[in-house]
Design brief:
alpha/beta; 2 domains; 10 helices; globular; binds magnesium ion; HAD-like_sf; metal ion binding
Length: 241
Amino acid sequence: MSTSKAKVLIAFDFDHTIVDENSEPFVFDKLAPNGIPDDIKSLYNRLGWNEYVGAVFAYLHSKGTSVDEIKKALYEVKLTAGMKQLLDLIKSEGLEAIIISDANSVFINELLKKFNLTETFSTVYTNPSKVEENGLITISYYHKQDWCDLSTVNMCKGHILDEHIKTNGGYDKVMYVGDGYNDLCPALRLRKSDVVCPRIGFSLKKSIENLAPPHELHARVVNWLDATELLQVTKSLTEKD
Ligand SMILES: [Mg+2]
């Protein structure tokens, strides 16, 4: 009898999944308590989330908000309940974990450092951002895609997941943990032997429940609210079928 463990990949969304808040709007609310001007707000609908976030960073910079003030607000973001236990289990089992997030690299890297989780993830796929010399945070697209109707132009998470799987020679089992509508594309690419974990109370769960042809979900669904509800399924992934 073979005792070898299954090769496992666990892919996580970041906002409302690893952390309990939506990190960018959370920080903006803290630093612009009287709201963001309407002409900047309208960028979200006209040009997309990334343009909006970039414009808010520019607005905060123009108002004299420093990077340290942005980081201080960001550090108030909390890990989701049970997430520490789940990530500790992933580490102790030696499982590979990645992040695929439509947030930005400065925010994610800062929070992973704060939570001492930098070593937990083999790769972080997100929109590249950086702090310029003058203290302005700039953000750009992860990629520019025209092949997926379920995803925004700057990020098709399903494509990123598929590429990661291919580049690493495939996995026996893949688990995807997320909450948002942009987590639907990767969920639909999973196989019968894989698991998708939509967070209760968020749009991925509803999107899966309301799925209509031609879209079809093959993976097993494990809903969760507190990440301790994912400990058991995570342990079971290492067993070879
Ligand atoms: Mg999310």
